[in-house]
Specification:
Helix 2 (about 95-115) crosses helix 3. The strands form three sheets. The protein has an eight-stranded mixed sheet, with helices on both faces. The protein has a two-stranded antiparallel ribbon with strand order 7-8. Strands 9-10 form a two-stranded antiparallel ribbon. By secondary structure, the chain is α/β, with parallel strands linked by helices. It has helices at about 60-65, 95-115, 125-135, 160-165, 185-195, 200, 205-215, 235-245, 270-280, 305-319; strands at about 15-20, 25-35, 40, 70-75, 120-125, 145-150, 165, 170-175, 180-185, 230-235, 260-265, 285-290. Helix content is about 30%, strand content about 20%. The protein has a single domain (about 5-319), classed as Alpha/Beta hydrolase fold, catalytic domain (Rossmann fold, 3-Layer(aba) Sandwich). Strand 11, helix 9 and strand 12 (about 285-290) form a beta-alpha-beta unit. The protein has ten helices and twelve strands.
């Protein structure tokens, strides 16, 4: 069954196209709500910028930031959402960490140009906490005023992720990857529900349907499968394999700007011990650590989303 179309009534974001600086013919989509000091959201391994622009009246993070007086932007990294290349690759991995960092840089430069050179507050989610951190340490050092790492990942062995990513023939290696995989509603429901003790209390079905339905609508090939599905690049798994095997891919001590870590207590991807290890290695003078009770890896799309929205907004306002 196709996801319910009711979410279309909440489609209100402005979409911009930003030329990629290192892939010819690629245009990156940036979603926007509101004006004011700029805030850029960067997604993780599965959902595009849609995760911050869910067409739902109470769960659209861009709208929350816009209502707080900010110019809120969400980037679709290459290969995700509406940022599809002119010709989709058919072999090799696509949308690697280095490519994602280049995309973040293009989006930040474009946003700063729109806002008379104002520095940008940056919010990364999941894998996006790895790409945004490395961007802040390098090209973004003088361009980012604060960094929020939502559902952060650092370098802790994670048996569940290792089981999913390991090569069956040699579990010490990452399984063979193609450029893309597909994600549908049943798969998303299963993954999400595994973290939720009481589905009725933690998440509305309308939120799930809106997120997956709009993600499918962003992919012109979604109707090629039954049930409908959207394509997701696999490049992220190269880095996540290292992190979930306890091998860090960056040194948090290089982050100089004010930094906040925030996670839900039920999150099995961003664990408490891993997040605290990351927090302890940060050497920036202003750093915060926040946990929100009653939330999973997808807490911004759950009933406990408001405490996350408020905590991040308050941190950005202070910095």
């Amino acid at each position: 069954m196709a996801p319910c179309p009711d979410w279309r009534r909440e489609e209100r974001s402005i979409r911009h196209s930003v030329a990629s600086s290192n892939e010819a013919g690629l245009w990156l989509t940036v979603r926007q709500r509101g004006e004011g000091l700029p805030v850029l959201f960067v997604h993780g391994a599965t959902f595009s910028g849609r995760i911050f622009d869910i067409p739902h009246p109470h769960l659209n993070w861009l709208q929350v930031m816009a209502d707080a007086g900010y110019g809120a932007y969400a980037l679709d990294l290459r290969g995700y959402g509406l940022s599809k290349p002119a010709v989709c690759p058919t072999e090799g991995v696509y949308a690697t960490g280095a490519q994602a960092i280049a995309d973040i840089g293009d989006a930040v430069d474009w946003i700063m140009a729109r806002h008379d050179g104002a520095r940008v507050a940056l919010v990364g989610w999941s894998w996006g906490t790895l790409t945004t951190s490395r961007y802040v340490m390098a090209d973004g050092r003088e361009k980012i005023r604060s960094l929020c790492l939502y559902a952060p990942i650092y370098a802790e062995k994670n048996a569940g992720w290792i089981d999913m990513l390991a090569d069956p023939a040699d579990r010490s290696r990452l399984r063979p990857l193609g450029p893309y995989r597909r994600v549908n509603l049943p798969d998303t429901r299963i993954r999400w529900d595994e973290q939720i003790p009481d589905r009725a209390d933690w998440r509305s079905d309308a939120a799930l349907m809106a997120l997956v339905g709009s993600s499918c609508a962003d992919d012109c090939s979604s109707g090629d499968t039954d049930p409908p599905s959207f394509r997701v690049p696999n490049g992220t798994f190269v880095e996540l394999w290292e992190c979930f095997n306890g091998r860090p891919i960056h040194d948090p001590a290089g982050v100089a700007c004010p930094t906040m870590l925030i996670r839900g207590t039920q999150d099995t991807t961003s664990t408490r011990s891993d997040a605290l290890a990351l927090f302890d290695r940060l050497t920036c003078l202003d750093k915060d650590y926040v946990e929100v009770h009653g939330g999973t890896h997808f807490i911004n799309a759950e009933r406990r989303a408001r405490p996350v929205f408020h905590a991040v907004t308050d941190f950005i306002r202070r910095n």
